[in-house]
């Protein structure tokens, strides 16, 4: 059986999207607390966060394709799992939020503080969806794909093969 590709790719969109959300939140906080824009020498923070969103979007497409391909090789009991379906729904919600913000920001630069706060809020909502979806993925991997519950699986120490 081949090694699944989806788990190897999903970390890239997650990292890019969460970094974009944190950067946008930092931009908002700097504007609110310092009374001016966030200054990072040699970097335009809003452009950097938009670039992170774009890179995350591209890797998300690859992760989705790999996930669908890997899904086909899962046992039927896992394919029919409500936990797996919830994982896909939460990750779909995250993808929708982040891609939606990317499209919105590319068509309309965030010139007002309210627009920037809204973008940051939508990105943070997307990040929350990623956390919930990731938690559900861990249940699928460590409980449903394992032969039985992880709690009942034999334990191995660090030195065990």
> Runs with pLDDT <50, length 5+?
148-158
Largest sheet: none
Question: What would you report as the Rg, rounded to the nearest angstrom?
Answer: 19 Å
**Class by alpha and beta content:** mainly alpha
In which range does the helix fraction lie?
over 70%
The coarse overall form would be elongated
Output the helix-strand order.
Answer: HHHHHH
Percentage beta strand: under 5%
Mean pLDDT across every amino acid position: 87
Total count of helical runs of at least 4 residues: 6
- Kindly, what is the distance between the CA atoms of the first and last residues, rounded to a whole number of angstroms? 21 Å
Strand tally is: 0
Descriptive overview:
The protein has six helices and no strands. It is an all-alpha fold and 161 residues long. Helix 5 (82-107) packs antiparallel against helix 6 (113-144). The radius of gyration is 19 Å and the shape is elongated.
How are the SSEs placed, and which strands pair?
Blueprint: H1 6-9, H2 11-34, H3 45-71, H4 76-79, H5 82-107, H6 113-144
Helix pairs in contact: 2-3, 2-6, 3-5, 5-6
